[in-house]
Structures are given as C-alpha cells and as structure tokens.
Amino acid sequence: MDSGFYAACAGLRAQSQALEVSAHNLANVNTAGFRGQQTTFQSQLAVANQTVPNVLNLATNNFGVLEGSHLDLVAGNLEHTGNPLDLGIEGAGYFAIQTANGTRYTRNGSFRVASGGELVTAAGDAVVGDNNRAIQVPAGAISVSADGTLSVNGAAAGKIRLAEFAPGVRLTAESGTLVAAPDGGAQLAKQTAIQQGTLESSNVNAIQSVMTLIAVQRHAEMLQRALSLFDNEFNRIAASELPRV
Hints:
The chain is an alpha+beta fold. The strands form 7 sheets. Strands 5, 6, 9, 13 and 16 form a 5-stranded antiparallel β-sheet that branches.
C-alpha cells in the first residue's frame, strides 16, 4: 500500500508539471514565433539501478517522474503582415538578441526602431548584427534582403545576425519566445533566409493543445482521488490497529 501511495504522489506531481507546460503552450497559441514545449516522462524502478537499493528506495521507486520538457522545433506558418520591420524566417535559424542575461535567440521577428535608432524587439532588446553589435537604422525606407542585409533608401545600414544550431544542441525556453543555447552552440546560418513583411505564427496546434490539457487534467484528478483513498485507508488502519499495539 505504501508503494501505491508513493506512486500516486509521484504521478500527481508529474501530471501537475505537465499541466503547467500544456497551459503555457495554449496561452501562447497566438504568440508570433512561439515554439511549444513537449513533456518527457521516465519510469524507472529503483531496483534496476546498479547500486544496492535501500528500504526507502524499494518503497518509493521512481514512478512516473517528469524527466523534463523540450522545444518542438517544427516551424510555424509565415503570415503576411506588410510591416517592413516584421521579419519571418525560412529554415532552422534564429535571430540573435542581446538581453540583460546575455545573448538569446528567437524566431519572433516583430521588430521596431528605438528612439536611439537601434533595431530592437518589442521588449526593447537589441537585435544583434553580424558584427555582434546593435544595428543602427537611419530614417528612410527600410528593406531587408534574404541574407539579413538591412538597407535604408538603398544604402546598406547593417546585417542581421542569423544563427543555426547543430542537431543535438539543447535549446532551453525562457520568457516569451526567447531561448538560450549553451556557449559555443550557435553557428552562422547557412540555410536560413528572411522574408520581409511576414511573421512566423506559433507552432502550437490549438485543438491538440486543448485535448492534451483536458487529458492531463483528468489524469491529475484521478491521481488526486487515489491519494484520498490511500489517506482514508491509512487513517482507518491507524484508528483500528494502533490501539491494539
């Protein structure tokens, strides 16, 4: 019985974490450049480890633990906006963004020109150029070529840095659409192109996300009921058996 209690407890914790991930995905279904997260579960008995298990390990095991989440790297659709500072990405690349926490990466190309003339994100973080500096944008008609070269009135003003990542490089989701990469993981993009006047939509499927959210919520409710049953049984045993000791 104690093993079942621990199993239900670990399962409820894992489903609660999965519920947060699902809700976060659904909340960003209309966020440009957002890439959803997928949960990964592990189920491994403690007795399968190389080390000799103790009594507590045998009782608790490692039931239904949420191992973590990873980004869904499937690209969203490019939607036409007509805004010259809306930039969509074709390929696997990312825009490099300078934030207070260092260089981060995003697929959200909704940019603007700050009061000081720098090309920035909606949050005010500088878009990194190929010289690893912010891009200064003079007044005038703006055009951006497929390779990221930004021109104003036909004169080149800078080049937007595009980064790609080799397979196996783990990207970690942060706030909004920003992702972090390990040091040295970014490479100059070779198979990525920019489409001016477009934005990449979120890659989250709204219907599938709702169904996932409902399924996870039902699993969590089932485990909550199981914990209540175990708790009631423990209380009954304590009340009826302990006085006899």
